[in-house]
């Protein structure tokens, strides 16, 4: 059973769907216009070499069709020079509609021209209607004005050119073809709409999986894997362009006591609130992630030890004076290390960890910078 019920899309999805189809419609239209040009040129060539008999009532429309299709193709390519993508899509949609309406009226003209030359055929209009419907997937409702135009053309031909009694069979066959085209247009629209919805569903799933693979579930910031990848990327940038950066490992002081005294739910709430308090104080390009447990890591691009230390001190003082959950105040210790030539990922992390160890051993609630004395 063929389902002719139109697929409904929400307004934002419908806008995105139609914009996507504008570009597909333009490709279809250009392809069909090329086919028309090639086919008509072949027929003209056959007439020139006497394979087909030259008949002005048919040859002249062929030449006109080639010229008009060529103008349409050139215009579409000229529109591609519009650099703004949204403006280009809007302009392309308008251009396609103009070409489609012009094509319909040209099809009507050719039918009238052929009828006046005693050729009772509606094929020119049917062919143009097929092209228009094939390249107008954005809305199957466009079929209605085409049907109205078809009926209007038939009335005009009957009243002013030739009574319908002379071409009743042609009219009925053409009307049947128009109905089939209408059904095909709706099925084509539904097929594209369903494919669009499935693609968006797959994209949403992939986006969710990518987010899950990169973020920490409890705090919503980057997880250890993502931060490790970002550190490796910045190491590569340093080796190529000498782009300096620092990392800092932060550890909440006495966090185990919080879990033991208040429970893990309170501990998780403190971690989440700590994250929210830190993020607004970071720069736009700074990267913040959870390293594991109560440890966090900061990647600070274009920063040296002193600049990183100043930032961490601001964070430390802010956290020290902020109640993270109810009346619970926390502090953190941090170790900083700037990347230097020929260091590996693990060596950089080890140095930051050693600096953190120094801050912890010096009484906690401190920020330490890695030095050669720190490592000894």
Explain the overall architecture:
The model has no long low-confidence stretch (mean pLDDT 88). α1 (11-48) crosses α2 (56-79). This protein has helices at residues 11-48, 56-79, 85-116, 123-134, 143-161, 168-214, 224-241, 255-262, 264-278, 305-320, 345-361, 372-375, and strands at residues 245-252, 287-292, 295-301, 323-325, 328-329, 332-338, 367-369. The strands form 2 sheets. The protein has a 5-stranded mixed beta sheet, sandwiched between helices. Strands 4-5 form a two-stranded antiparallel sheet. The relative contact order is 0.07. The protein is built from 12 helices and 7 strands. With 376 residues, the chain is α+β, with helices and mostly antiparallel strands.
Helix/strand layout:
Elements: H1 11-48, H2 56-79, H3 85-116, H4 123-134, H5 143-161, H6 168-214, H7 224-241, E1 245-252, H8 255-262, H9 264-278, E2 287-292, E3 295-301, H10 305-320, E4 323-325, E5 328-329, E6 332-338, H11 345-361, E7 367-369, H12 372-375
Parallel strand pairs: 6-7
Antiparallel strand pairs: 1-3, 1-6, 2-3, 4-5
């Amino acid at each position: 059973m063929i389902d002719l019920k139109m697929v409904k899309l929400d307004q934002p999805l419908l806008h995105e769907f139609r914009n996507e189809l504008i570009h597909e419609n333009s490709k279809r239209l250009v392809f069909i216009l090329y086919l028309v040009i090639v086919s008509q040129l072949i027929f003209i060539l056959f007439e020139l070499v006497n394979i087909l008999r030259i008949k002005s009532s048919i040859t002249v429309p062929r030449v006109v069709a080639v010229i008009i299709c060529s103008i349409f193709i050139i215009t579409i390519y000229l529109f591609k020079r519009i650099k703004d993508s949204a403006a280009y899509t809007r302009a392309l949609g308008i251009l396609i509609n103009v070409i489609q309406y012009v094509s319909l009226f040209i099809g009507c003209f050719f039918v009238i021209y052929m009828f006046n030359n005693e050729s009772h055929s509606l094929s020119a209009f049917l062919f143009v209607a097929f092209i228009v419907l094939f390249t107008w997937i954005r809305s199957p409702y466009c079929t209605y004005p085409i049907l109205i135009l078809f009926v209007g053309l038939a009335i005009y031909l009957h009243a002013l050119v030739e009574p319908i009694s002379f071409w009743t069979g042609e009219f009925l066959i053409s009307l049947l073809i128009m109905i089939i085209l209408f059904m095909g247009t709706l099925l084509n629209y539904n097929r594209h709409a369903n494919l669009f919805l499935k693609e968006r569903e797959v994209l949403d799933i992939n986006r969710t999986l990518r987010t899950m693979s990169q973020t920490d579930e409890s705090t919503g910031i980057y997880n250890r894997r993502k931060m490790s990848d970002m550190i490796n990327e910045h190491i590569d940038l340093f080796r190529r362009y000498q782009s300096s950066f620092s990392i800092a490992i932060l550890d909440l002081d006495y966090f185990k006591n919080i879990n033991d005294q208040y429970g893990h739910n309170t501990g998780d709430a403190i971690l989440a609130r700590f994250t929210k308090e830190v993020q607004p104080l970071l720069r736009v390009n700074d990267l913040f992630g959870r390293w594991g447990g109560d440890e966090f890591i900061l990647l600070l691009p274009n920063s040296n030890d002193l600049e990183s230390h100043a930032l961490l001190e601001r964070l430390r003082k802010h956290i020290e004076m902020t109640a993270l959950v109810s009346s619970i105040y926390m502090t953190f210790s941090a170790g900083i290390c700037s990347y230097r030539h020929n260091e590996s990922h693990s060596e950089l992390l080890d140095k930051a960890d050693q600096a953190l160890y120094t801050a912890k051993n010096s009484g906690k609630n401190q920020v330490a910078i890695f030095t050669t004395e720190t490592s000894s």
